[in-house]
Amino acid sequence: MAAQGFRPVYHPAGHDHALRGAVQDLRTGRWVAMARLLDETTGWPGWTRRTQVLAAVAAGTDVVAAWRAEQPDSIAAAVMHSRVAVERAVRAHRAGHARTRELWQEAWTACREAVERAPADPVPWVGRLALSLLDARQSMEEHRLPPPAPMLPPGPWGLLAEAEKRDPYNREAHHRMLQFVYARRPGPLSEAVNYAQWASSAAPVGSALHALPLYVRVERYRRDRGHERALDLHWVAEDAVRDARRAMDAWFLFCATEEASLLDLNHLAHALYGALKFADAARVFESLGPYWTPQPWAYRTALPDERGPAEEVFLRARARCLTAPESRPGT
Hints:
α6 packs antiparallel against α7 (123-131), α11 crosses α14 and α14 (262-274) packs antiparallel against α15. The protein has 2 domains: 8-186, Serine Threonine Protein Phosphatase 5, Tetratricopeptide repeat; 214-331, no CATH class. The chain is globular, with a radius of gyration of 20 Å. The chain is 60% helix and 0% strand. The model has no long low-confidence stretch (mean pLDDT 93). By secondary structure, the protein is mostly helical.
């Protein structure tokens, strides 16, 4: 796995081969494979993950609209419609597009209709959580409810509770909530740190939420760019090593690779590498196989918006970990 000439592959489906096939069909304008895949998907975690990936691909097309026109009674099509509408609204917000408010309203309506069509599904509630990011002033009452614990900010806690009622410890729901916390107040990340620790501390063994603090640490690193002297110490600090070890011991050792988020795996490999835990990082790199994600590696480069430098950092880290003496069999 550390062979010369290895080049990593980025694919949103990762190890999920069935999802990869549906994505390929979706990119050619066909929806039948997507419909079949979702019909065969069991469990809310897999459903949430697959609909998120499919929506990211479908958002720039009219494939889901064609599916709804062909099968107006399909509940899966209604949920995917809400997914695509949310994805478009969030992208418009990120780009400062003039139609952001219009797309936001369309997405909110689509989520409400999906809740009515699929009352047991967490995804429409996850969609409404994603839309809370657009309400920067927290003007909507559902976006400024009191928190469930001290040291946490007011926010869309009712939406998170609805998603968790349907799928406890839903990974995407908590990541959407973390994004809301980031956007709520620029500056120090104390609220985000508190939120990530609160969410991960309540999660059971095997939950991907144990990786949540790693994302906050990367965000802090990203914001501290320019203070170069402090950056090398960022990953070997006692709390950084502790967060990496907890994610390894409470999540990675129990997760199924084909169901794990590539972003989570990359964040864990990155944290262990930074903490100089090369043997542990090697196990995560091996589980990644041929895949990678540009983040968080891009933030270690001078050009974080370009994929090439990030790939080189990933490759150097991977080679360092896989060739470390303690990573070799029999040592």
